[in-house]
Amino acid sequence: MENYPLWILQDRCLSRRSDFFLAAEKFFYDELLRQGQQPILIYLWETIHPALVLGIGQDSRQEVYLDRARGEGVPVLRRRSGGGTVVHAPGNLCYSLFLPLSWDVALREVVSSFFYVGSWVSRALEELAVCARVVPLSDIAVCHPEEPTTMRKVSGNAQWRRRHYLLQHGTLLFQYDPLLWERLLQEPLKQPDYRQKRRHREFVLPLERFDVTVERWLPSFRRVLLQEWEKKSGRKPRENFFDVLLMDDDSSSAVQLFATDHYGALEKMTLDLYGQQESIDLSVWHCDHSS
Fold first, then answer.
1. What is the pTM of this model?
2. Which of 21, 200, 216, 291 is 20 to 30 A off residue 10, Cα-Cα?
3. Number of domains composing the chain
4. Residue 1 falls within a domain, yes or no?
5. In a domain, 18, yes or no
6. What's the pLDDT tens digit per position in 142-184?
């Protein structure tokens, strides 16, 4: 188990845009595949710039209101994983979990891996007195405080797999703007059973309703990960085994250099925005500390 160090990389630069983070995921994935070690890497980030991110197989015309997005200057991107359309906006915490498939047998199958990894997020919420659970296939839902039998969505997840590693990424909604969702996001064609055809504002519930913030959730999530490691290893980790690292401008420059070298591949991660091919603007990827 010592060959599975746990790392958290937290990017606190809110001025970066979602295309940077999509590129960063690809960068970290390739770096992990090249290493002899098999760390569990948790990459956390937030942005103040709204964006719409489609799953790899989705049709933008059926998922988002492209004309409205163009009018508001909201980019429409496409990620490498499946799943539904995600709204990136202030109040969201996005997480990317890079996991070696050898860590647990549950990671080998899609359904079991969604439950296994999603349970880390839901257990961290339960530590904060939030009734939460993983709902098929890949959502995390909570009990409504006034309607305990009604489940409301707080997180959606998707996966991208290669031979030795799994990337599961998702978004936790601490705050959200229902008007933004309704202006830009169509009602999805494919819906989980528990949604029961509810509109966005009746289906989604931000964690602020439970007085849960990123600052409260993150230490709880860290404890859950350490508990999982101890359970599998049978011993406590050494001191400083689990580190929270802050992403600085040097590491973001490495991502930018990677993007420059793989520009053609990164273009495939983006949609033809509003029907026109638009280039990735690498100049905006440096952190604006004035934001």
1. 0.83
2. 200
3. 1
4. no
5. yes
6. 998 788 788 999 999 999 998 888 999 999 999 999 999 999 9
pLDDT in tens, 183-229: 999 998 889 999 999 999 999 999 999 999 999 999 999 889 888 88
CA angle 42, 167, 27 (to 5 degrees): 75
Which residue, 141, 204, 180, 161, is CA-closest to 52?
180
For the chain, the residue count is 291
Q: In what order do the strands lie in the sheet with 86-88?
A: 76-78, 51-54, 86-88
39 close to 61: Cβ distance less than 8 angstroms: no
Can you point out the beta strands (E) in the chain?
6-11, 40-45, 51-54, 76-78, 86-88, 92-100, 132-135, 139-143, 151-161, 165-173, 243-246
Tokens of 198: 């509810």
Cα–Cα distance between 254 and 225 in angstroms, integer?
28
Structure tokens at 29: 């994935």
**Lowest mean pLDDT segment, chosen from 57-61, 80-84, 275-279:** 275-279
CATH classification of the domain holding 269? 3.30.930.10
